Amino acid sequence: MPMNETTPLILAIDEGTSNAKAVLVNELGQVIARGSRPLSLSHPQDGFSEQDPQQIWESTLAAIDQCLAQVDRPITAMAISNQRESVVAWDRNSGELLSPCISWQCRRSTPLCAQLHAQGHEASILEKTGLALDPMFSAGKMRWILDHLENGHARAATGEICLGTVDSWLLYKLSGGQVFATDYSNAARTQLFNLHTCRWDEELLALFAIPLAALPTIQASAGFFAQTVAFGRLPAGIPVMSMIGDSHAALYGQGGFVPGLVKATLGTGSSLMTPMSGPLASTHGLSTTLAWHDGVAATYAMEGNIVHTGAAVQWASRLVAGESLDQLTEQAAQLPDNGGVYFVPALSGLGAPHWQADARGLICGLTEATCGAHILRAALESIGYQIRDVFDAMAQDIGSPLKELWVDGGVTRNRWLMQFLANLLQCPVVRSLSPEVSALGAAHLAGKALGVWADDQALAQLERQRERFEPDNGASMEAHYSAWKKALQRTLS
């Protein structure tokens, strides 16, 4: 179909932890324009991680403006993918912000989680939500906000306060304050959503003391959410036709529609995810989640969340400051080995499959011969080891070996790491060459809702650029992995 003024063009937002991105996607599934703005993350005290919601909004608008300036064609629809579990509170009527954006990385709700664990609620929370009782998830953050706002619980009960994930904050702003909604995938990460009823759960709301009136309505991930009001180059009246959490969107963008595919999104943190036909419970420390609802049916997924991957490399580079991250990474890759150095990046606890919020980071094996490049090498290797931990747990839960791993995200640009990962897993690693897989997944859902693509089979046939890394069968990584497990055990104990 030749491109002209009437062919569909979808504006997809990917609001992550480090950047706000916007891309324009045509009917061939190709990105024809892009914009991006960096975001900052602050740590006001130990264990606290937060962002400025106003900066998130303004950076998103700036990315949209940059993107739309490159193409003179009308937009058919919008799509939103977003960092998950992070929470914002604002006044429903005025839009006034009442809290920072409390990041998914933030551990400020650790005392509440410990209290609920001591009271024996962990098993029921896991059964209903598929999620471990951990500060990563939204419910504890929401409770913290209400506890620290004047008359917070009373105001939330009357509907005066909105408690939302980032997708619902962006939708509220884009619609001029008219719509407060989220989708199934983001709701499933709050620890207030029942996977079996697909609704906010009354018992969980009571347990976390979150009033229903403060939460957004839940919709399918694909379908009409709201119309935009005008902002800069963004015109009024553009329908928002999909919303989905970024890791779920990456799975959809990779074409992971049916069980059997395992993808890993490697960014600030990492997420391994495989689709399932139903909410199968994990017995090896993973999460069960609702991947998306395409307007017809729900697709579930098993997931392992790793808190620090790209963030661990950034942290290590600051620790050995003096050269650029690119220079240090190149030096690390050129080393013959890691010099016996292992880094467990539990900088704010450990996620899957360990779920130990009070674990703290550890670097071990230091000698007089250790240099900064060794520490960077250990940080890079820690990404692979953590992925191996989750990958093995996922294979045990599924009950069969996993044949390959599809990867996406900024960290995957490191080709040395991709080969290390293939050798460590002893299976092919297939890297997406698109830097916008999450945005593409959201765009694909919106296009499916609009009828641009008839079904998942049509989406699966879209061209996707990939690079394949085959394992070196002669590379024995088990001794290194065993040493990692010993370092990990020190951290856990």
UniProtKB/TrEMBL annotation:
Q: Report the SUPFAM superfamilies cross-referenced here.
A: Actin-like ATPase domain
List each copy of the Carbohydrate kinase FGGY N-terminal domain by range: 10-253
Q: Where is the Carbohydrate kinase FGGY C-terminal domain?
A: 263-449
Question: Which GO molecular function annotation, any one, does this entry have?
Answer: kinase activity
InterPro entries in alphabetical order? ATPase_NBD, Carb_kinase_FGGY, Carb_kinase_FGGY_CS, FGGY_C, FGGY_N
Which domain of life does this protein belong to? Bacteria
The record's keywords, sorted A to Z, are: ATP-binding, Kinase, Nucleotide-binding, Transferase
**NCBIfam families registered for this protein in UniProt:** PRK00047.1
Instruction: Give the family per the record.
Output: Belongs to the FGGY kinase family.
Question: Can you say what this protein is called?
Answer: ATP:glycerol 3-phosphotransferase
Species: Pseudomonas brenneri
